[in-house]
Design brief:
The chain has 467 residues and is α/β, with parallel strands linked by helices. It folds into three domains: 274 residues, 3-Layer(aba) Sandwich (Rossmann fold), CATH 3.40.50.620; 126 residues, Anticodon-binding domain of a subclass of class I aminoacyl-tRNA synthetases (Four Helix Bundle (Hemerythrin (Met), subunit A)), CATH 1.20.120; 58 residues. The protein is built from 17 helices and 15 strands. Helix 12 runs antiparallel to helix 13. The protein starts with a strand and ends with a helix. The chain binds adenosine monophosphate (AMP) and zinc ion. The site of zinc ion (ZN) has 3 residues, from loops. The site of adenosine monophosphate has 16 residues, from helix 1 and strand 9.
């Protein structure tokens, strides 16, 4: 299995620290607002990474934090005239609700920054004692020049950083890139006691402490979107190296942005749709398919047209399953026919090649086409393709609720539809074609489509109509 590693700039063969296990940390949200559909792209992709590792047999330990103390939270609390903790609690709850609604599985651990303040103070204290950090009027800064190789992750060097920062160089920091580990509290701000007075930890310290506490000094994969490479991940790495002399993670994975008219979707620019809003219009699987149809490192432009296409494609998958009477059960079978295996191997090869979901999704499309192709494939094979479609799709987070989605209103609906299909057959056999057509047309008006196949008449429900 190959993964593109930001730290080396290459696709590399993945070597887990412990055979059969993956330890993985993805930076979570700063909870001061509802998250947008751009953030959702990143959360959703790492949900797929986790699912894929599980599918191929790894035991995954997945940590995603919640940043529940930060300048942005304090600013929002000031606007709302409520305590910062109340803002954080409200949007942390919303984050969990919205990720659930997106079909994202919750991480194994979801640490919150405010639960780790003593450990953060301990790290900062250690860095000060080792000469990697210094205090300035109640703030504590990391001294980037104290750590040879600072900037390696983002491929930046200190001289260039100094030149770039000259205009804003009006602080007493030793180097303009020195970053804050501890911030002195201003009046009215949330605060904790520390050796440097009352204050709060900086964001970069939060993530390094939580990840190392739950995954160890060095873990397999550290993840986020590309905006986090610098300074956030560089600064996490710097603290870890200064503390242990070892890298924080072996692989650094970064996803591309969701853009709006060419610019990164972002809360601060105001060019965003919340995940909540988008889920009013599109179901979770449609959103998932829209994102996974592109490679995770490519930018994606937000596009209602492409979302509509993804919705039609999803309906088509369900239609294919219905077409051959797929029922829940042993989708992950131990052995597959040569025809099925060839497609499965192609899917696995795509995913093992740096999570090429675009290619993997195209294998799913091909399976759906084959399932409906009565001319070239026998019904047994098409049923096997349907099981494979659900099995492989499941590895990307699709079809997790296929049984109930196909049943629509439950068993009774299915029985009533079978009854109507039976009436139509009866009408036709009595040459009452107007009545037979009326059954078909009335059902069509309700979004139920009838198809006459070699295996009899089958009905399917157009999901965009019923949702
Ligand atoms: P934030 O709450 O802003 O710290 O972002 C949470 C996660 O979403 C981080 O991993 C960011 O890198 C990621 N992110 C932010 N904006 C976008 C975007 N437009 N497209 C994809 N990922 C994003
Ligand atoms: Zn982080």
């Amino acid at each position: 299995m190959k993964i593109y590693n930001t730290a080396t700039g290459r696709k590399e063969t993945f070597e887990p620290l412990v055979a059969g296990r993956v330890s993985m940390y993805a930076c979570g949200p700063t909870v001061y607002n509802y998250f947008h559909i751009g953030n959702a792209r990143t959360f959703l992709f790492f949900d797929v990474v986790r699912r894929w590792f599980q599918y191929i047999g790894f035991d995954v330990r997945y940590v995603q934090n919640i940043t529940d103390i930060d300048d942005k939270i304090i600013a929002q609390a000031t606007l709302d005239v409520v305590p910062a903790a109340q803002v954080a609690e409200k949007y942390a709850t919303a984050f969990i609700e919205d990720t659930n609604a997106l079909g994202i599985e919750q991480p194994d651990y979801q640490p919150r920054a405010t639960q780790y303040i003593p450990q953060m103070i301990a790290l900062i204290d250690e860095l000060v004692k080792k000469g990697h950090a210094y205090e300035l009027d109640g703030d504590v800064y990391f001294a980037v020049e104290s750590l040879p190789g600072y900037g390696s992750l983002a491929r930046k060097n200190l001289d260039d950083l100094k030149v770039g920062a000259r205009v804003a160089a009006n602080t007493r920091k030793r180097h303009p890139s020195d970053f804050v580990l501890w911030k002195a509290a201003k009046p009215g701000e949330p605060k904790w006691d520390s050796p440097w007075g009352e204050g709060r930890p900086g964001w970069h310290t939060e993530c390094v402490v939580m990840s190392q506490d739950l995954l160890g000094d060095t873990f397999d994969i550290h993840a986020g979107a590309i905006d986090l490479i610098f300074p956030h991940h560089e600064n996490e790495l710097a603290q870890a190296r200064a503390r242990t002399g070892k890298p924080l993670a072996n692989v650094w994975m970064h996803g591309g942005f969701l853009n709006m008219r060419g610019d990164k979707m972002s809360k601060s620019e105001g060019n965003f749709f919340t995940a909540r809003d988008v889920l009013q219009k599109y179901d979770a699987e449609t959103v998932r398919l829209f994102f996974l149809s592109k490679h995770y490192r490519s930018p994606i432009e937000y596009s209602p047209e492409l979302l509509d296409e993804a919705r039609t494609a999803m309906a088509n998958f369900y239609d294919a399953l219905q077409f051959v009477g797929w029922k829940p059960g042993n989708d992950a079978q131990a052995s597959w026919s040569d025809e099925a295996k060839a497609r499965r191997d192609e899917f696995i090869a795509a995913m093992d090649n740096d999570f090429n979901t675009a290619r993997a999704v195209s294998v799913l499309f091909e399976l759906a086409r084959a399932i409906k192709n009565e001319k070239d494939y026998a019904i047994e094979l098409r049923r096997e393709f349907a099981r494979l479609l659900v099995d492989l799709g499941g590895a990307l987070g699709f079809f997790t609720d296929a049984a109930s989605r196909l049943e629509v209103g439950g068993a009774l609906t299915g029985k009533l539809l079978d009854l109507l299909v039976g009436y139509r057959i009866e009408f036709r056999s009595r040459k009452m074609y107007d009545m037979a057509d009326r059954v078909r047309d009335d059902l069509a008006a309700l979004g139920v489509e009838l198809k006459d196949t070699r295996d009899g008449t089958v009905w399917s429900v157009r999901h965009d109509e019923v949702e």
